[in-house]
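Model it.
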Amino acid sequence: MTYITRCRDYHLLKEPTVKAILATAPQQQYLHPDSPEITRDLFDIECLDATRRGYLEPMRLIIVRLIRFSKQKPSVGKCEGKYLYELFLTSLPPSCFSAADVLSLYNGRGGFEQTLSEEDREQDCDRWCSWQPEGQSFWQILSQWVWNWRIQAGWQSQAQRQIRQTLWSPALDQLETQECSAPTIAPQSLLSTPTVNPQLAPSPKYGAMVAVPGWGQSRHKYSGKDFKIIDDEAIECPAGHQMDRQEVRYNRVGDMQLVFGIKATICRICPVIQHCHADRSANTRGRRIWVTRAKLPTPPLLAEVPEIIVKQSLSALNVGTQAIIWTDIPATQFRRKLKCNLERNQIQIEAVSAHRQAIDSAQPLLTRQQRAHRRLSWEQRLKRNQLQGKAVNWKVQFFGISSSLAEFLKCPHIPGFQRS
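Modeled.
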């Protein structure tokens, strides 16, 4: 699932990569239809690695810069000098959506807000119907389900099901290319690297595994240096027991934190428990050890060693070469038309057989729960109220609906009575 969202982490403007791009010329310019006199400069950073600030993965950052006209503090954006900056994050690929296309899609979200206002006006989703929060949440879910069903039923009732297409952004006449540099790593034989245990070797993103030293009540007990790191899945305690990985966390700077633990039953029978657990510990859980892996900085484009030459390869990337077409259906028209058609239709309900079987009053034996009129369980209510056999108890007949809607509802229909 793709996303477009506004970002309020304006500390990203202090990143060296962002500062270097803002010092260059803008890649695109954008004019809003409501304020065409204001020109907005767009800077597109395709892959910004800010995981040390808590982001889980590199992201695409779009920066909007415009001249600050008013000296008052704006409600949205960050003022620095004479410019006002706005940040947007998206997962849309730059090869299909340019920075102007992403900003245009974000500004066009008002259509969804209009849909939400129609939902409140037509169905009253916020009405009070339950004394419990769970019951009120169930009403919200049921209301949204009815809303979607009205749209789907209105779509199926149309004789000609046509979709609506809107040209959101035209195709570019000329191909816009961006040059991106991809470093070529020097041969391994030219680099002098020390011998490292392959199981504990640093990964491209994180460093080697380091156990956290003891603190608090475990300060004078076995600490992290007394535990042997096997791999990123298990470690070995001083008594020789294997501790498996239980959790993986990330701190604010992006470092990986691994939590290893062992069962409490193993620790209780361990002969060195007095050297491992705290003195006042109830021993309700096993020993836990934290192991950290530091987040490695982004490698530079140029090698720091003068003898090693890193070649830069240029590749062309087409940006926004195809038109963006917004495809949807006239949902408002379908919902209202379906409601009008149902109000004019004739409904005939005929009782074919008794809806509920008569309760045998001559039952000789009663249980104590029946004698005390105890509340039935859900399974007992289902068994009492469910239909017996395959007999149809009620017959509901609609007149004037289309055959396509009848097929969608899986209802048998008579061709002579279908709507023209």
